[in-house]
Amino acid sequence: MLCFILHALIVVILTLLTQIGGVVYLITLAVVRALRIRRFPAKLALFLLLYAGATVVANLTAPTFGRVPLSCVADAGDPLVIRSPIYCALNRNYVTPELSDLARALATHMDKQFPGTVTVALDANFPFVNGFPLLPHLSHADGKKLDFAYYYKDADGAFLNGATRSPIGYFAFEEPAAGDELPCAGRHDWLTTRWDFDALQPLFPAYRIEEQRTAAAVAWLTTEGAARFGLQKIFIEPHIKNALGITDAHVRFQGCRAARHDDHIHIQVE
Question: Rounded distance, CA 199 to CA 193, Å?
Fold first, then answer.
């Protein structure tokens, strides 16, 4: 019974993390039993091999379900990159074709306006099934959502091309200054993903948001992005929106139960 519970727990965790990993694990168990494989390294190697194959299959079949992968293999000079291969390894890099076109058009625009600038994408969506949660996000469940990293500069004001403060682009927050708008001040919600990760903040480099490029990206999204690609919403923390002088109605606050958005920009299309 304990063994069954352990396998069930692994299936659930792998499914939540990768969408396809739970199914691959069950297939691995069946093959292990059929071939009577006993050594753990051999079992692990078999799982990784099957998982890699399933990931390739997902890349090939996802378009049938209305989603395409953003590539984690960027060519030299490619203006759009995904922050880490971990996003592709976990199948978190899928979007609708329209959102893929928007992302590439934004990156191309930024490269033209600021030559050589790289736009960094973060979490997108899983390859299959609308409504399947991409934890810890509350809304990345239909291929129509994508996160971008902010553009950053160092403490001396020099632009840091393609850099993020954290290794995965998340959880390194831009803390509001005294007097900034704080929509969640005084709230102590129990059911929330608005985590501050205070213990992590001193570990990240002292980069700051590069205002010129970030404001230009948001301006393009709210004009060309909305007109040509159906951009519906952008989520940014109010203190950053105000600091950048953004007033467009597409740019909104995500609410106090959702994750903070002063470490990334969330966009979604219709």
Answer: 16
